[in-house]
């Protein structure tokens, strides 16, 4: 039995977004949830879980009415 499991989709999305944030210091807005859903072929809840990871890490913050911003350093 293989003890290594593939990474969950939401963690993979969070990793990708985290890299984008770190590689593009001028980045202010995260992609739209619908765009991330289409790009990764996942559900809205999966994208929201990924964004929640970034929020807990202090990298992103939700906007009133939807959308997410990169949290300024």
**Weakly predicted, low-confidence segments:** none
- Helix/strand class: mainly alpha
Distance between the termini: 43 Å
Helix-strand topology string: HHHEE
> Got a strand count?
2
Helix percent reads 40-55%
Reading off the top of the CATH hierarchy, the class is best stated as: Mainly Alpha
Biggest sheet statistics: 2 strands, antiparallel
Domains (count): 1
Textual characterization of the structure:
There is one protein chain. The chain has three helices and two strands, in the order αααββ. With 73 residues, the protein is mainly α. The protein has one domain (9-70): Winged helix-like DNA-binding domain superfamily/Winged helix DNA-binding domain (Arc Repressor Mutant, subunit A, Orthogonal Bundle). Strand 1 and strand 2 (68-70) form a beta hairpin. Helix 2 (33-40) crosses helix 3 (44-56). The longest helix is centred in the first third of the chain and has 15 residues, at 9-23. The protein starts with 8 loop residues before the first helix and ends with a strand.
